[in-house]
Amino acid sequence: MTTTILPVYFLILFCIYLKPQAIAQNENQFIYNGFHGSRLHLDGVAEIHPNGLLQLTNTTKQEAGHAFYPVKLNTSSRNLSFSTYFVFAMVPELPNLGGHGLAFTVSPVMNFAQALPSSYLGILNSSNNGNDSNHLLAVEFDTAKSPEFNDINNNHVGIDFNSLTSNASAPVTYYSTSERISKILPMISGKPIQVWIDYDKGENLLNVRVAPIQIPKPELSLLSTRINLSSILLDSMYVGFSAATGAIATSHYILGWSFSRNGQAKNLELSKLPSIPRKKNPSEKPSLELTISLIAVAVSLIFTVAGIVYYVRRKKYEEIREDWEQEYGPRRFSYQDLYKATKGFKDKGLLGTGGFGKVYKGVLPSSKEQVAVKKVSHDSNQGMKEFVAEISSMGRIGHRNLVKLLGYSRRKGELLLVYEYMPNGSLDKFLFTNEKPNLNWSQRYRILRGVASALMYLHEEWEQVVLHRDVKASNVLLDADLNGQLSDFGLARLYDHGKNPQTTHVVGTIGYIAPELTRTGKATKSTDVFAFGAFLLEVACGRRPIEPQASPEEMFLVDWVLESWKQGAILETSDPRLGGYYSADEMSLVLKLGLLCSHAKAASRPSMRQVVQYLDGAALLPERLLDGATVNNEASVEFVMSVPSSFEKISVDSVSSSESILYRGR
Ligand SMILES: *[C@@H]1O[C@H](CO)[C@@H](O)[C@H](O)[C@H]1NC(C)=O
Ligand SMILES: *[C@@H]1O[C@H](CO)[C@@H](O)[C@H](O)[C@H]1NC(C)=O
Ligand SMILES: *[C@@H]1O[C@H](CO)[C@@H](O)[C@H](O)[C@H]1NC(C)=O
Ligand SMILES: *[C@@H]1O[C@H](CO)[C@@H](O)[C@H](O)[C@H]1NC(C)=O
Ligand SMILES: *[C@@H]1O[C@H](CO)[C@@H](O)[C@H](O)[C@H]1NC(C)=O
Ligand SMILES: *[C@@H]1O[C@H](CO)[C@@H](O)[C@H](O)[C@H]1NC(C)=O
Ligand SMILES: *[C@@H]1O[C@H](CO)[C@@H](O)[C@H](O)[C@H]1NC(C)=O
């Protein structure tokens, strides 16, 4: 059997993987619907995936990658022109934090070994930036705000001549013809984005157009610059892409590319473009998926049916147990039980997908108890012992407003955490969608008090200090009686009382990340309080901390509430869905407390114990504290976004000067 099937199988593989996807390559134009068999010159971390996807950078920090194609431009010709059309995608490592960006680049050289990553985008360095002898044209798609190059924001396109200080730039937006408005297009959404760049010497115009996938080439340019490129372009140039990462990293991809040096660049066949790998867990290798599928096919061909059945049965329930795990015995679940409880981790039982993995509903076979099982990917064995010790001790944490961790199980590359089941799901669904009924004020107030007391318990009352590090409405679950239950200790790390907390990563969700956390990377009780402040405001106002679609005054919830408070109209920010049915005293307390917790200065924020006292009415909120609370969240958010560029360069003494950005008034 195998002798006849295998050659056919390889023939099919051969056809799938070697089918040339590039067509019509000549000196005047080329089109790549995927980059198989392409004539691109790659360097740095750039690579072409088996499916034809060009990856310029992965999430390794401080790296750059390039891909170039040599072209001849006739600079003496009267009608020097070029036109290019490409589709890119950017998948950030941390949600909503871009680092750093990519640039369509035209350059007389393709050796960028001396160029710097990060804000230099892999095309220049500090000594040649701005030098006219570079003959460099770049159209940058920059996702971090680099103050040193006068960047306008963390999501802009810029036209650069020989320098990273753009001669023209614009926030990335597109015109929605259906809604008849211009909309922000976040580049780090992970979704494919189309770009058209056209230069016509006759008119001396360089035009850049941008649109989400499937939307036709816009009539209006996002950026249009009058420029005589004769002084920049030389006869022999390389066109292509450069991308770079900084202290925070983004995977930069090019899906397809068409270029023409006279006439419009040809259209790409969007349906043929390679797909972007789904966001991988850190422990997986990029090629693992392919390897596994190939092995699986080969195995299924070679082994007999009986062999397969045996293999699958054995593999299905395989788990890892080590000697040291004996002591955690009672908290250990068998994988087989969890598999059965969740009916094989079917998507039907999916409760949600968090930052760390998918959560499934299950019913334990023995006790018939309902549980939620969270699948977390993890690195092989590294730190596993410590982690299991942590989750085991977390299992001993008991508080009526904390979702109880019942135990765990583990397999290769996978950790399963078993939690008690919360029938009403997460609070954000109640607040921000119409899927769930509205919550009245007394229900909301009870939830706030519950979560506050849970955080106080974690910070002060348990045997170790536990930082939550991702307090927000979507991490608060509701039990059958609509009591708030703080969940997701996936991000939490335990610290002994008195020890200095250390972290390696800025974790959290933008809008809830305290300004000092982005600078120091150190989570503290006070950064949890900051996030709790954002949470107070979202529950009271019924909206998220940052609402890109809102008017500029209302976009940042904290700023809006603060302004309204200054104008004596704080209650106007309350959730309209409450219909005015709330205790004005309580509402005003929650809003002011939200502002106080969101104070830019960590030292001015209350402790969770004080927060609980204010909410219980056991202490009065001192209003004068609010006077200095000029938070200016917008600046801090922009600062967060600019971290990748400035972080590595900010030395300890310059931190204080950049800090002043945060207190800048409006
Ligand atoms: C990125 O790519 C480089 C080179 O291909 C590799 O060494 C590195 O491990 C990759 N990093 C990640 C995070 O995948
Ligand atoms: C460049 O353009 C000039 C003027 O149009 C023409 O005379 C010359 O042959 C062109 N050179 C090449 C290499 O195409
Ligand atoms: C900057 O790049 C240029 C050109 O690649 C190179 O000659 C120069 O040595 C580099 N300077 C530094 C400081 O790396
Ligand atoms: C620009 O670069 C050229 C060649 O690398 C060098 O000779 C010149 O000094 C540089 N100019 C400046 C202002 O740095
Ligand atoms: C770009 O801007 C710089 C600084 O404003 C200016 O010196 C330079 O001439 C401009 N270049 C072009 C090609 O417009
Ligand atoms: C562009 O600049 C070149 C020399 O730098 C000049 O010869 C040419 O006339 C200019 N073209 C236009 C349209 O301004
Ligand atoms: C220049 O323009 C003329 C007419 O517009 C066209 O026939 C010719 O092919 C163009 N040459 C180049 C090199 O683009």
Topology:
Elements: H1 2-18, E1 22-23, E2 29-32, E3 41-44, E4 47-48, E5 54-57, E6 64-72, E7 81-92, E8 101-107, E9 137-142, E10 156-161, E11 168-171, E12 173-176, E13 181-184, E14 193-200, E15 205-212, E16 223-226, E17 236-244, E18 250-260, H2 288-302, H3 305-316, H4 335-341, E19 350-354, E20 357-363, E21 370-377, H5 384-395, E22 405-411, E23 414-420, H6 427-432, H7 441-461, E24 465-466, E25 476-478, E26 484-486, E27 494-495, H8 515-520, H9 525-541, H10 552-555, H11 557-566, H12 584-597, H13 608-616, H14 633-647, H15 652-663
Antiparallel strand pairs: 1-2, 2-18, 3-6, 4-5, 5-18, 6-17, 7-14, 7-18, 8-9, 8-17, 9-10, 10-11, 12-13, 14-15, 15-16, 19-20, 20-21, 21-23, 22-23, 24-27, 25-26
Helix pairs in contact: 7-9, 7-13, 9-12, 11-12
Bound molecules: 2-acetamido-2-deoxy-beta-D-glucopyranose (7 copies).
